Amino acid sequence: QVQLVESGGGLVQAGGSLRLSCAASGRTFNRYPMGWFRQTPGKERECVASISYNGGSTYYGDSVKGRFTISRDNAKNTVYLQMNSLKPEDTAVYYCAAGRQQWGSYNRWAYEYDYWGQGTQVTVSS
């Protein structure tokens, strides 16, 4: 069974930074794309960033381009989301997700992922 465990969320002031981590287990991590999504009450889950199986290609949502960076360490089975210049509108529950397609490029839609973490709260105060 695949498990994804996020960490690194918390409360930060606007303009600050946080780094989220997602540790994966249960299948060959380095064969699958990974993604970070976020969700606020009443809204659909939004893809923040995604990375291909080997880290060679990435995708960023328009709202976070230039501020967030996704990376992965396949030796540690971990994917990261570095979040800089945080804004109050970045407040959400952030989810890590593992893509369905082996050797896949980045995936920007939720249906392209088959495993999800439990989520970690990020709150940005103004």
Q: Give the C-alpha Rg.
A: 13 Å
The level of helicity is: under 10%
Number of helices: 0
What structural class do you assign from the helix and strand content?
Answer: mainly beta
- Average pLDDT, rounded to a whole number, is 96
Given as residue ranges, the uncertain stretches (5+ residues, pLDDT < 50) are none
The arrangement of helices and strands along the chain is EEEEEEEEEEE
Beta content comes to over 45%
Tally the beta strands: 11
Give the overall shape. globular
Main sheet characteristics: 7 strands, mixed
Q: Termini, distance in Å?
A: 40 Å
What does this structure look like?
The protein has strands at 3-7, 10-13, 18-25, 34-39, 46-51, 58-60, 68-73, 78-83, 92-99, 113-116, 120-125. The strands form two sheets. Strands 2, 4, 5, 6, 9, 10 and 11 form a seven-stranded mixed beta sheet that branches. Strands 1-3-8-7 form a four-stranded antiparallel beta sheet, with no helix packed on it. A hairpin with a 6-residue loop joins β4 (34-39) and β5. Helices cover 0% and strands 49% of the residues. It contains no helices and eleven strands. It is an all-beta fold and 126 residues long.
